[in-house]
């Protein structure tokens, strides 16, 4: 089997996300695009998963706490064979579809439905602790948004993770600098995020969230307790016409989709 480079997988995922933005109700575009490299490294290199057996007992788990970025997770699951990409595009956010605008557990590869922010870390801590008690080697990876780190529930859960030295837990923060109401720093500053995570007892590193090798190195490093990776990213990353400016949510018309795809090197009629 020919191994597809992770860079190419990232481009494909972005194409699918753009197509989801052109569906009748659109999608949370900026934050879906910002986390693509995180998803690619996790699903394509780090995590122990079986796409054809998504409930495999020995699997590692991925929790998307920023559940509004469902389009990004679904597109990545399609790229790695959990679901069908064409079915996803055709049924995204349609009545009766499992591919809802916030993450649905009816989709293979999704552990929990998420959307209300501040829940994913607690779920991840509970799963990691459960694996510890059952003496299992399963690992848990949680992706949060930087705006979401204003939720106090995250910090309560992180204290428990540190207290129990849950080395099977990794929290990744998609630090794209924006949230629904505007720039994160003007709403509730996360300038000291790395220092706070470290002070709460997590082994914390800060990386370029679009650098696949930097992400892989951080994720594959040995850990003696819970880890946090603060991934500095850009909203709309990977699509030149959108990079750094989002938008948070978008519904593309055919011409906008054509321009966005063209900026990725895809020519459409």
Automatic annotation (TrEMBL):
UniProt record similarity statement: Belongs to the transketolase family.
Domain named Transketolase N-terminal: residues: 26-259
Transmembrane segments annotated in the record for this chain: 20-44
Organism, as annotated: Myxococcus fulvus
Keywords in alphabetical order: Membrane, Thiamine pyrophosphate, Transmembrane, Transmembrane helix
InterPro entries: THDP-binding, Transketolase_N
Cofactor(s) demanded: thiamine diphosphate
Family annotation (SUPFAM superfamilies): Thiamin diphosphate-binding fold (THDP-binding)
Name of the protein described by the UniProt record: Transketolase subunit A
Transmembrane helix among keywords: yes
């Amino acid at each position: 089997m020919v191994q597809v480079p992770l860079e190419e997988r990232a481009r494909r995922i972005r194409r699918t996300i753009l197509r989801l933005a052109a569906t009748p109700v659109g999608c949370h575009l900026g934050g879906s695009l910002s986390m693509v490299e995180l998803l690619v490294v996790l699903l394509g290199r780090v995590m122990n998963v079986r796409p054809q057996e998504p409930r495999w007992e020995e699997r590692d788990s991925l929790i998307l706490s920023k559940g509004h970025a469902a389009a990004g997770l679904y597109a990545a699951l399609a790229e790695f064979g959990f679901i069908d990409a064409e079915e996803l595009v055709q049924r995204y956010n349609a009545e009766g579809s499992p591919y809802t605008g916030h993450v649905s557990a009816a989709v293979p590869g999704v552990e929990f439905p998420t959307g209300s922010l501040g829940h994913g870390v607690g779920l991840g801590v509970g799963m990691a602790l459960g694996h510890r008690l059952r003496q299992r080697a399963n690992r848990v990876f949680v992706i949060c948004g930087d705006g979401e780190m204003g939720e106090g529930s995250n910090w309560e859960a992180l204290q428990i993770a540190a207290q129990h030295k849950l080395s099977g837990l990794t929290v990744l923060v998609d630090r794209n600098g924006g949230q629904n109401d505007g720039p994160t720093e003007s709403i509730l500053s996360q300038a000291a995020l790395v220092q706070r995570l470290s002070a709460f007892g997590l082994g914390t590193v800060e990386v370029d969230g679009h650098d696949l090798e930097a992400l892989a190195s951080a994720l594959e490093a040995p850990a003696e307790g819970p880890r946090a990776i603060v991934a500095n990213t850009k909203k709309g990353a990977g699509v030149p016409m959108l990079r750094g400016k989002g938008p948070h949510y978008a519904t593309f018309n055919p011409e906008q989709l054509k321009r966005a795809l063209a900026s990725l090197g895809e020519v459409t009629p």
